[in-house]
Amino acid sequence: MASRYNLIVAGGGPAGSAAAIAAARGGLRVLLLERRSPPARKVCGEVLSAEGLGLWRALTGREPPVSAPAIGTAAFCTAGGSRAAVAIDPPAMGLSREALDGALLEAAAREGVEVRAPAALGGHEALASGGFRAFVRRGGGEEAVVTDHVVIATGRAVEAAGRGPRWIGRKGSVEAGEPGRRGAELEMFLLEGGGYTGVSPIETGRLNVCGLVREGGDAWLRHPALAGLAVEAELSVARFRLGLAAPPRADGALAVGDALAVWPPIVGDGITHALASGALVAEELLDARRRGAPLRAADWTAAWRSAFGRKLELALALHRLLGARAGRGALFALARALPWASRWLVGATRTGRSVRLEAGTGRISRR
Ligand SMILES: Cc1cc2nc3c(=O)[nH]c(=O)nc-3n(C[C@H](O)[C@H](O)[C@H](O)COP(=O)(O)OP(=O)(O)OC[C@H]3O[C@@H](n4cnc5c(N)ncnc54)[C@H](O)[C@@H]3O)c2cc1C
């Protein structure tokens, strides 16, 4: 007899873990598959918004390490020497993905989720009787299991079809040097053509270096904050698109996090969106089960749109403006003349403000 679950989640990043934790808290039998052995390094700026930190705390029941720095300013600069700074209020936090994702996976196991890593979802098919047969790959073997629902939280789709330019994500790190050098700032170097390199501190004492670029090469390392420092370039992810993955999946699975919509990294809210959309899909699933109705991919996409669609449009517009010289100039002028307006603009992109976190139970619903 095949093992039976209420929910299989593919992907043990923030979106998948959030979905698994919230579903297990709601009483579902959950299997979570992560194809890599944790803790895994990831291409990410590792800046967690204050709202994301609130969600992370509610999901893990943990506090971040005391060494995790608060990041209260995003300072932007260009090769031409223009500069502007925007306050991040409330401050974000520098937290490595090993610590962030690792604590979520541990919390999932504590909540009774069956976590298998390394193990991958090899595919799934709908059953005539309802639910799905899913294929779990581990150590060269494959096991078929049966589940009521499938959540896909496998991250950015590389080489996906669609519109818009394709991007490459780069990642490195550098010794922070003497403590005075390690300002609690996110330093953003805007590249011609719309990319950027961000440098910011994390809890390990190192500086995380992360770039979004159109082509290979070392242009992303010409950040003034890196002058004279030896950056250890580590990882890269190639050829992904920003924005909503369209149309809703036709295979009955529900996509969350980057598998559903890739947030422009420049606004630093992708992790928060992953946590929020993961927790929200679980709440929508639980709600549908209470009503005895299936949650179809189109219903979920509509619920997602109503919570986060506007935020994504605004984030994409900001990304485009910062990539164009005239738009960048206008935004820098706004930041200098009306600091409150740029603070407001940053706040308006925060996906964590689209969800309500219930104190006590830690449940997450749409605002
Ligand atoms: C350059 C860059 C900088 C960024 N900086 C920031 C930032 O500073 N702050 C911020 O909030 N966001 C940032 N982001 C965005 C953030 O990294 C993502 O939004 C976030 O990781 C999405 O989480 P996720 O859980 O959807 O996907 P992921 O974190 O990618 O997790 C997906 C998981 O699924 C696993 N997986 C894949 N396929 C399978 C399978 N078949 N079966 C099982 N497991 C599978 C993968 O191993 C992976 O662990 C940045 C992104 C880029 C590209």
Short description:
The chain is α/β, with parallel strands linked by helices. The chain is built from 7 helices and 19 strands.
Walkthrough of the structure:
This protein is of the alpha/beta class and 367 residues long. The chain has a domain at 4-67 and 94-160 and 242-323 and 351-366: 3-Layer(bba) Sandwich (FAD/NAD(P)-binding domain), CATH 3.50.50.60. The protein is built from seven helices and 19 strands. The strands form four sheets. An eight-stranded mixed sheet has the order 3-5-4-11-12-13-10-14. Strands 1, 2, 6, 7, 8, 9 and 16 form a seven-stranded mixed sheet that branches. A hairpin with a 5-residue loop joins β11 and β12 (196-201). α1 (14-25) packs parallel to α3 (97-110). The chain is globular and about 65 Å long.
Q: Any idea what the CATH superfamily of the domain at 4-67 and 94-160 and 242-323 and 351-366 is called?
A: FAD/NAD(P)-binding domain
Rg from C-alpha positions? Answer: 20 Å
Biggest sheet layout: 8 strands, mixed
At CATH level 3, the topology of the domain at 4-67 and 94-160 and 242-323 and 351-366 is FAD/NAD(P)-binding domain
CATH architecture classification name of the domain at 4-67 and 94-160 and 242-323 and 351-366: 3-Layer(bba) Sandwich
Mean pLDDT: 92
The tally of helices reads: 7
* Topology as a string of helices (H) and strands (E): EHEEHEEHEEEEEEEEEEEEHHHHEE
